[in-house]
Amino acid sequence: MRQLLDHAGATEEKVFGHFGATGGYALAARRGMHEFSAGPETWKHIAVGQRKWANLNPAAMMHGKAMTEDDYYRAPMMVEPFRLFDNCLINDGGRAVIVTSAERAEDLKHPPVLLMGMGFHNPSNQISQARYMAGPTGAKEAGRAAFQMAGIEVEDIDACQIYDCFTYTVELTMQDYGFFEYGQGKNWFSGGAIEPGGRLPVNTSGGQLSEAYYMGLTPVSEAVMQLMGRCEDRQLGPKTDTKTPEIILCSDNGGILQSHACYIFRRR
Amino acid sequence: MSYNKPMPKPDADSKPFWEGCRNHQLMFQKCTACGHVRWPASILCPKCHSRETQWIQSKGRGTIYTYVVYHQAFDPAFKGDVPYVVAIVELEEGPMLLTNIAGCPHESLECEMRVQVTWEEVSDEISLPKFQLSGA
Q1: A-B contacts (CB, under 8 Å)
Q2: Contacts of B67 in chain A (CB under 8 A)
Q3: Which of A93, A113, A119, B71 could form a disulfide with A142 if both were Cys (CB 3.0 to 4.6 A apart)?
Q4: How close A254 gets to chain B, by Cα (Å)?
């Protein structure tokens, strides 16, 4: 155990009892609460909303498990301000997406999904020296580049698949992309906005919080499947009382908000 | 009972920092080219890449930039401590230091509170810089 923990992070952090991603993102989330975020009052909407999507997805680890706001609040504190359901899942498994040219994809069996734009930005500092933990993160520049390449605006996005290692990551990322005004996450996520039937579906497989953690491939594979129309009970469109999607945005980030990628996909 | 938590492993860069701690002095490198005071210790200044550096003593005063409360012991050695506070303290001289806030209930903490260094002796060679609320 000791040997394992000795390799788990920077020595100077472990000395003070600081371990892993939960602690790092919790530090960021607390600073976020100091600067702009309503914290759990916002994050409960993300955790509960994504769970409703997972309940429609038989492949999701949390498929058969409903969650209410009370369940969210009653779950144990892990590293405060994060409760249990602010954390993503831990699982084994795999995901794959085949990437090829639009020309090569023409005569394939399944309809292809096209990549419209992408952007990357990496602030890189270790978390204890970071000044970006309450934003702007890499999402700001990566999003700007992706939207510019795609030639579209935020208003053109029909659904989002956001890298959701923690609930706070979803709030911060979507704020940096410009889906809502600074500090307005609590209002924006309320009223079932991201759920089945909501005005902007987010993490429609259940995401890493409620489907499974496949790093950046949880969001990317779900975006592609949705645009191909292969999502069955959770399919965006009439089945879930949402808009049939033309354009879906995905995010991915690494480290403790140290690297960021944004992808925008569209139906052919 | 002997101390069974992870110990710092001073290397060529950080040795002066931990030697300072043993003497209850919080020491950081200051770039003599651009004046930037840095942590963690490194051979180059992260601002201007100069190798010219001197060690200065911090007054040990700063503010809580952010903090968390561990309610779970991810290492069993910390089981007796939960709930305990891990914080990033922004020192007056500039560096940010990951540390613990000791000696006050975590419910009373907020970002930007003023703190000062306090020392925990863990062995003959190692003292850990922890922080408490100023005036506490």
Answers
A1: 89
A2: 27, 30
A3: A119
A4: 20
Other Cβ atoms less than 10 A from the Cβ of A256: the count is 23
Note whether A34 contacts B86, CB cutoff 8 Å.
no
Q: Chain A: nearest CA to B49, how far in angstroms?
A: 15
Domain with residue B25: its CATH number is 2.40.50.840
User: What letter represents residue A179's amino acid?
Assistant: F
Q: Is residue B8 part of a domain?
A: no
* DSSP tag of A182: T
Flag if A17 and B84 touch (Cβ within 8 Å): yes
Expressed as residue numbers, the domain containing A166 is 2-267
CATH number of the domain residue A114 falls in: 3.40.47.10
Three-class DSSP category at B86: strand
Which sequence positions of A are flagged as catalytic? 163, 213
Facing residue for A5 by CB, picked from B6, B67, B130: B6
Distance of CA B124 to the CA centre of its chain: 18
Query: Which residues, at least 6 apart from B80, have a Cβ–Cβ distance to it below 8 Å?
Result: none
List the pLDDT tens digit at each of the 268 positions of chain A: 455 545 444 568 999 999 989 999 999 999 999 999 999 999 999 999 999 999 999 999 999 999 999 999 999 999 999 999 999 999 999 999 999 999 999 999 999 999 999 999 998 777 778 889 999 999 999 999 999 999 999 999 999 999 999 999 999 999 999 999 999 999 999 999 999 999 999 999 999 999 999 999 999 999 999 999 999 999 999 999 999 999 999 999 999 999 999 999 999 8
Expressed in angstroms, the distance from the first to the final Cα of chain A is: 51
Total number of domains in chain B? 1
User: Is position B55 within any domain?
Assistant: yes
Q: pTM above the 0.90 mark?
A: yes
Residue B36 is which amino acid? H
Range of the domain at B79: 15-133
Q: Which of B69, B100, B128 sits opposite A80 (nearest CB)?
A: B69
Contact: A12, B106; criterion CB under 8 Å: no
Quote the number of domains for chain A.
1
**Distance in angstroms (rounded) separating the CA atoms of residues A240 and A226:** 12
* Touching A: B residues 10-69, CB under 8 Å: 14, 39-40, 65-69
